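Hi,

I'm pasting everything inline rather than attaching a file, because the server keeps stripping attachments. The sequence lines come first, and each chain or strand is labelled.
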Amino acid sequence: MGDKIADSARALSTLIRARYLRSFSHPGVRTLSVPPPIVEFRRVSKSFGDTRAVDAVSFAIHPGEFFSLLGPSGCGKTTTLRLLAGFESPDPDGGEVRISGEVVNDRRPYERRVGMVFQSYALFPHLSVERNVAFGLEEHRVPRTEIPGRVERALGLVRLPPATFARRRPHQLSGGQRQRVALARALVLDPAILLLDEPLGALDLQLRKEMQFELKALNRSLGMTFVYVTHDQEEALAMSDRIAVMCEARVAQLGTPADIYENPRTEFVAQFIGEANLFGGTVGQGGSGAGGPRVVTMGDGRTFQVPEHPAVRPGAPVRIAVRPEWLDLFAPGAVPPGENALPGVIRDVVYLGETMHVVVGLANGQLVRVALRNEGQLLNPLPWRRDDQVMVAWRPDDCQVLEPA
Amino acid sequence: MSSPRRRLLAWFARRPAAGSWALLTPGLLWLAAFFAVPLAVLLGYSVMHRGTYWGVSPGFTLEHYRRFLDPLYLAIAWRTLWIALATTGLCLLLSYPVAYVIARAGRWRNLLLFLVILPFWTSFLIRTYAMIVLLRGGGVINSVLMGLGVTTAPLDLLYTPGAVLAGLVYGYLPFMVLPIYASLERLDLDLIDAAEVLGARAFSRFRRVVLPLSFPGVAAGSLLVFIPSLGAFLTPDLLGGAKTMMLGNLVQSQFGPARNWPFGAAVSFALMGVVFVGLLVWLRVRDAEAAA
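And the predicted assembly:
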């Protein structure tokens, strides 16, 4: 079963690559070692009335990449995807959308070689599964004799046995099966780019994980570029080659999942992707010790050290983000030398399975989350209890200096 | 402790079906008294002999149904059928675009719907008289045409099948707009986007996605227009005159001036038969579509 799928996936991907190269008219393309981006947004803006849904957004997507647009609802990620699909055109003077190097601002969706999977699946309720999948082939005037074979292959690709499912109507399918039909309907046309708008939003957790894995596998085996919109940061981290985190119509940060998690540039990114404790204060003027150039003094007079960073200038206000798992707890007086440490009282201990979160209230009232790895909770119970006096500590390098907002 | 009210509620709680019957009974009684009984009486009349001056006299005969097959009456039946079909078709052509625009009209939607049903605020009779004012020899349309020099003499607009058609289409338009609007309003716009990204041009998106999904509205609207058009009486009477008699007028004249109640009843049942057959055909077509 698995081998068959891999085989058909390989066959389809060879086919797609052959078509892809043929469709490429750019003369310099074979001499370049790095292929040009398949998608490029150059300062693209889109307004609806007085609202800017997308504001001067720029990014490039490489062929074959799994690229995610991640952000809270209303951040502009879906509009960005619709601009790429061709359902929306950028504002006049609203920049350029390029596909394979060509400006496509005013091209209709069917002139862009893109496929799309909608959050609602958007299966045609009056057509059977096989007619749904055949729809695009019929619209593209694919010879009648070729259609059944291609439909069957596409259904095989998404692991829906045609014998069982071909004649069913969408309302006779489960959510996961509809999802697969929507995917097959898009894939059957061999699009250069597959656009996915929160496709797993309506599925339960188990099925989501399964589909995440399958989507990623399809992306690899087909060599097709996937552009994936989601508000679920875990999903984006798990699947993406690169993520563009969007906030208020702009790209807040673009990078690999690890890059974005480890080095969030702004407070928004730090808090939207994973959890973050924020500490702020003023950088010292000079000399060494408490007033030194890499020492930050907080509002209550306590200090911590920060690594080198452009935002760390004498006298400047600065904020840092520290992930819960970068923090550690010590008894007062037991903090290793060289670590930043702030005193506090344990307010709560939350057991989460693989980790335990200890919530510590600092003297200034701020609550700090510390994640401790579960090293056998039953054999080695935590030495900490509620109301214990503790030191929250981290190494000066284990933090991310945030850019001023 | 157990008041009569409580006992009653407990009795109904033990018998869910009794509750449904209790809710259905008033409506059923109404229909029985004013629909089923008169219908049975009428069916009886249609096979009895004609009374000397009016009404019926006892006996059994099928002569009235036989008489309906006379070419004179079949011509009226034929005219009725094609006027009803043409009314339905014209209403459909005029209503679909209107319903489509209203379904996409955003904040104007409620205002437009209100305008569609606005004519119902005046009596149908008055509106039909207003059409006479428009269509008659010295009426508004002829005055304008002659004033502009398009025509030299008044056109015969009133008392033609065209006038009847215009009146029926005008009268029944909202019954077509509203169900089509309802089905288009429910249409998931993602489906149209999905069709476009799959390669469907505008006409194809309409023909393959929008139209089939609004079919329930089209079917409901067509029935709501076709059936009353078949039985129309007031409009052909006022706008069609004697030359454009429809079955409704025939029935009326038999119970009225012609004083032939059994024949009037037979024509009524023939009309019901036509509607019934039409309905069966429509259901067949619909089931065939659903199975395809």
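Chain B touches chain A through 17 residues (CB under 8 Å).

If the labels don't parse on your end, tell me and I'll reformat.
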